[in-house]
Amino acid sequence: MAIEQQITISFRYGKNDLKALHQLSRELDRAMSSDSLGEVDGHEIATDLSHGFLYLYGPSAEAMFKAVKEVLLRPDFMKGATAILKFKDGKEVYPECEVELE
To answer: Which residues contact 12 (CB under 8 A, 6 or more apart)?
Structure first.
């Protein structure tokens, strides 16, 4: 059984449609799957498209973040977003790491 760690990305969106978010999700999926690092497990978005969350899961939150960081920095709506890396080893949960994307 693989150990699942998580990255939750909180961002301000403010677009008129979900096109840019779907494009980012595809790019993140490519970055994660190229090295078999895990998966993009989807997103949540406010009904007024003002803000949202992206969810990534895999065996190493650190490795996932290294793989997707440059992709996350490309879209304008990701400036100032916060990535929360959640670590666990079996049943042991470790302190989270919060990173602001600039």
So the answer is: 50, 51, 77, 80, 81
Pick the CATH number of 5-100 from 1.50.10.10, 3.40.50.300, 3.30.70.100, 3.40.1010.20: 3.30.70.100
How far apart are alpha carbons 59 and 15 in whole angstroms?
32
- Which are the contacts of 59, defined by CB distance < 8 A and separation ≥ 6? 2, 3, 4, 5, 37, 38
Hey, where are the domains in the chain?
A: 5-100
**Region for residue 93 given its phi and psi (left: phi exceeds 0; alpha: psi -120 to 50; beta: otherwise):** beta
**What is the spatial distance between Cα 72 and Cα 67, in angstroms, rounded to a whole number?**
10
| Contact partners, residue 8, CB within 8 Å, separation at least 6 | 53, 54, 55, 83, 84, 86
Q: What is the mean pLDDT of each run of 10 residues along the chain (102 residues)?
A: 82 97 95 86 96 95 94 96 90 83 90
